[in-house]
Structures are given as C-alpha cells and as structure tokens.
Amino acid sequence: MHQLRGWLERVGLEGPSRAEGLQALAPMAEVATQVLLDAGEAVELRGLLYRRRAVEATTEAVARARQHGPVAMAAVRDILGTSRNYVLRLLEYLDTVGVTRRQGDLRVAGPRLVRDQR
Questions:
Q1: Neighbours of 74 (CB within 10 A)
Q2: pLDDT tens, N- to C-terminus, the chain (118 residues)
Q3: What is the torsional sign of CA 102, 76, 118, 55?
Q4: 39 — phi, psi (to 5°)?
Q5: Buried b (16+ CB within 10 A) or exposed e, 77-102
Q6: Alpha-carbon torsion 82, 85, 86, 92, what sign?
Q7: Which among 61, 89, 85 is positioned nearest to 75, based on CA atoms?
Q8: What's this model's pTM, rounded to 2 decimal places?
Q9: What's the Rg (C-alpha) of the chain?
Q10: Integer Cα distance of 102 and 95 in angstroms
Q11: Torsion of CA 91, 97, 98, 100, to 10 degrees
C-alpha cells in the first residue's frame, strides 16, 4: 500500500492505467513476497502462497481430528472449510515435514506429530 501511494505521488498528474500501475509495482510485490517467505511468515506450496498461520491451523486441525484415528482428506477439507485442491497441497506439505504420513487415502500421525504429543 505504501509503495503504491509513493509511486502515484511520483507520477503526479501523468496518471498511469491500472495495468501500468500493476506492472510497475510487480517488482515490489516480488520483493515483499520474498521478505515474507524469508521471515517465515509465508510458505510457498506448489506455487501457492500461504500465511504461516494457515499452515499452523491445518496442523492443529489434523492433530485434533487425528485423536479419533486416521484422517481422510475430506475430513480435513470439511474442518478447514476449503476445497480439496488447497487441502491437498497443505497435507502434502505436512507429509513432507513429518507432521503426517500418508497411508492410502488417509493421513496418520507422522514422526513430528507423534514426538510433539509426548
């Protein structure tokens, strides 16, 4: 927001089109995105960006649901209230970092979740 205001002030009365504005701000958006990734505030999963809090909420949801046994992707989707496409990326990430482990169509506790529950 701050960058957009500054840029519009610099161009003055030679107001750009919306497309020109977006094109001019694209490098700033890339830098801002990288800052969030480097700071650990965002995570990129197969080309999509997620706030770290969203990943943590998914971890907590899976941990709660897992108390009743293995968890199906559909259950996680319903708990989080989002589509299968997004949940799949999140669950694959949790598999990668050891929070969950895929067994067929279900997710069971991975080594990290088992260790954290001790």
A1: 11
A2: 566 677 667 766 666 777 887 787 788 788 888 888 999 989 888 888 888 888 888 888 888 887 788 989 998 889 888 888 888 888 999 999 998 999 998 998 888 876 655 5
A3: positive
A4: -80, -5
A5: bebbeeeeebbebbbebbeeeebbbe
A6: positive
A7: 61
A8: 0.68
A9: 20
A10: 7
A11: -10
Token code pair at residue 25: 């701000």
DSSP sequence for 48-93:
EEEEHHHHHHHHHHHHHHHTTS-EEHHHHHHHHTS-HHHHHHHHHH
CB 76 within 8 A of CB 58: yes
Structure tokens at 10: 């610099």
What is the phi/psi pair of residue 116, to 5°? -70, -20
